[in-house]
Amino acid sequence: MDRGEDVVRQLYGRWRGPLRGYVLRLVGGDHRYAEDVVQETLRRARGSADVRTPEEAGPWLYAVARALVASGFRCAGGERPEEPPSEVDAVDHALQGWQVAEALRGLSRDHRDAVVELHYRRRTVAEAAAALGIPQGAVKSRCFYGLRALRDALAERGVTEP
């Protein structure tokens, strides 16, 4: 097995569930469509230089999945959504996702981990604390300061208002 296949297997094991839940919310509960998007997202991760380790891949994976949904992606033979967003909207949405992912990478590891656990993986504070091995108060504090730093970084990039 080559390194690419090993990374994809690790990504699949680590991110398939959280990514599928996220995409399901984006597509209004269409399980088949969500699974198509997740599979395509993980397939694209194999060839991406942006995906170095499975643990750091989350923001990139979420941005790609969001862009696929916004573009109306469907696997071969599948039907496209009835009203796909315009190309301009899809590109803007994808660019915003990449900018958020880049801004997340700029946070300290502690802040990024707390934000990802609570907001991308949709874990409770108690679940995030257990996953990170830190007290619940530390999760809340790190998330608060991480979100503030993320907001400031996005404002500097012109993505959000200050």
From TrEMBL:
Q: Where is the RNA polymerase sigma-70 region domain?
A: 11-74, 103-151
One GO MF term on file is: sigma factor activity
Q: Name one GO biological process term.
A: DNA-templated transcription initiation
What are the alphabetically sorted keywords of the record? DNA-binding, Sigma factor, Transcription, Transcription regulation
InterPro entries linked to this entry? RNA_pol_sigma-70-like, RNA_pol_sigma70_r2, RNA_pol_sigma70_r4, RNA_pol_sigma_r2, RNA_pol_sigma_r3/r4-like, WH-like_DNA-bd_sf
Instruction: Report the PANTHER family cross-referenced here.
Output: ECF RNA POLYMERASE SIGMA FACTOR SIGL (PTHR43133:SF52), RNA POLYMERASE ECF-TYPE SIGMA FACTO (PTHR43133)
Q: Which family does it belong to?
A: Belongs to the sigma-70 factor family. ECF subfamily.
This chain's protein is named: RNA polymerase, sigma-24 subunit, ECF subfamily
